[in-house]
Amino acid sequence: MRNFDELSEREILALAIANEEEDGRIYSDIAEGLRDTYPASGKVFLEMAAQESGHRRALLDLYSEKFGEHIPLIRRQDVRGFIQHKPVWQIRPLGLDSVRKLAEQMELETMRFYRRSAARSQDASIRKLLGDLAEAEQEHEHTAGRLMEQNLTASARDEEDKAARRDFVLRVIQPGLAGLMDGSVSTLAPVFAAAFATGRSWDAFVVGLAASIGAGISMGFAEALSDNGSLTGRGAPLVRGTICGLMTTLGGIGHTLPFLISDFWTAMAVAISVVIVELSVISWIRWKYMDTPPLAATMQVAFGGALVFATGIVIGSS
User: Fold this and answer.
1) Could you tell me if 185 and 309 are in contact, meaning their C-beta atoms sit under 8 angstroms apart?
2) How far apart are CA 269 and CA 184, in angstroms?
3) For residue 290, which phi and psi values (nearest 5 degrees)?
């Protein structure tokens, strides 16, 4: 890698051409990735790609006028100080907030590059073009806002917000809720069965810890292997499996930790209180994100939890 200050004016222009080509491709890839789910935002990025193409043509014209037809291959990764952007295909599925932040970061970096390049240039025409491009990149934020207003009407934005919420529910809420329900409900029986069978807090804690971690691993693998997300749009299996596994473990650990209290009945009372909180949280999530009526969500979760809890007590006391 070379330092930016070591580049000649010819190399700076070659680097600028390569940067504009790369930025245009990134915006085109983003537009393609958003086309089906967020068509209005996809159109915005397509127009931004067209603007980058215009910058590239201006740079090419000036380069050929000054230095001829051959352009040396100089890229961001060849010069110290540039941010390395992950290819768009590696960050799918694309989120609106993430790609908008990426675009802002790219425009800011490019603006700084043109300003530094213009300050170093001794050629008037090169200095002028680089300065003009720096101003153009600074205006891109306003241009992006204008394009958003033109393409993202109130109805289009509403549709994209609904689509984003659906994606969030599919990729995060559903696997997390499944894990939380499994961890909170399925571990009730072994934890409280061990507690009533032995009458010792520590034994209940060990059983609960094993059940929680074991259930987390099992649910994580089950979620990850059940669907690769290619047809259902539920996202990366590794991410879903991790979310599901962690939430499963968290759901079981919640009412297991109170059994670290040495006094058995105090631990039992705290654990039951935690169970009530866990079931309330599950009911709230089902109402908030799954459109389940609050009373129905509460009754369904409470009924299931009560059955499992009673099973643990009956088996532990027998």
Assistant:
1) no
2) 16
3) -105, 5
pLDDT score, position 270:
92
Closest among 99, 108, 91 to 44, alpha carbons compared: 99
Distance of CA 289 to the CA centre of its chain: 18
With residues binned 3-state (H G I as helix, E B as strand, rest as coil), the percentages for the chain, rounded to 5, are 80, 0, 20
**101 HSE (CA, 13 A, CB side):** 5
Rounded to the nearest angstrom, the gap between the alpha carbon of residue 79 and the centroid of all alpha carbons in its chain is 29
Torsion angle of the four alpha carbons 95, 97, 102, 108, in this order, in degrees rounded to the nearest 10: 170
In the chain, the largest separation of any two C-alpha atoms, in whole Å, equals 93
Terminal C-alpha separation, the chain: 73
Sign of CA dihedral 180, 186, 187, 192: positive
Which pTM does this prediction carry? 0.52
**Neighbour-count burial of 313, counting CB atoms closer than 10 A to its CB (0-12 exposed, 13-18 middle, 19+ buried):** middle
Burial class (CB in 10 A: 0-12, 13-18, 19+), 69: exposed
For residue 206, what pLDDT is reported? Answer: 92
pLDDT means over runs of 10, the chain (318 residues): 83 89 87 78 83 89 90 84 65 66 78 86 86 77 57 60 72 84 83 87 90 89 74 70 89 89 89 88 84 78 79 78
Cβ atoms of 176 and 244 within 8 Å: the answer is: yes
Contact assessment for residue 106 and residue 85, using Cβ atoms and an 8 Å cutoff:
yes
